[in-house]
Design brief:
The chain has helices at residues 3-12, 16-25, 32-38, 43-56, 74-89; strands spanning 30-31, 59-64, 67-72. By secondary structure, it is an alpha+beta fold. A hairpin with a 2-residue loop joins strand 2 and strand 3.
């Protein structure tokens, strides 16, 4: 287990705004402009949260025009689930 990467992954989930972003992304890819419309945060705060989520691997980003589009990284979510299950086994 890579403890550094695992720590980043779970740290990313430790903030209410980031959890809300993850919940919104469950429905599929969203533009940053759409996330800003749904959240009560500014653009710089959204950028901060998205950097943490992307660095953790939980969210993928791609630029389309002037906006970033974000989506959940299913393999990272599966990895988090496996880590939790492994902790329960012992």
């Amino acid at each position: 287990m890579n403890y550094e990467q695992t720590s980043k992954l779970f740290k990313a989930l430790g903030d209410p705004n980031r959890l809300q972003i993850m919940h919104i992304l469950q429905d599929g890819e969203k533009c940053a402009c759409h996330l800003l419309d749904l959240l009560d945060i500014g653009q710089s705060t959204l950028s901060h949260h998205m950097k943490i989520l992307c660095d953790s691997g939980l969210v993928s980003a791609q630029k389309e025009g002037k906006w970033m589009h974000y989506s959940l990284n299913k393999s990272a979510l599966e990895k988090a689930q496996k880590i939790i299950c492994a902790l329960q086994e012992k």
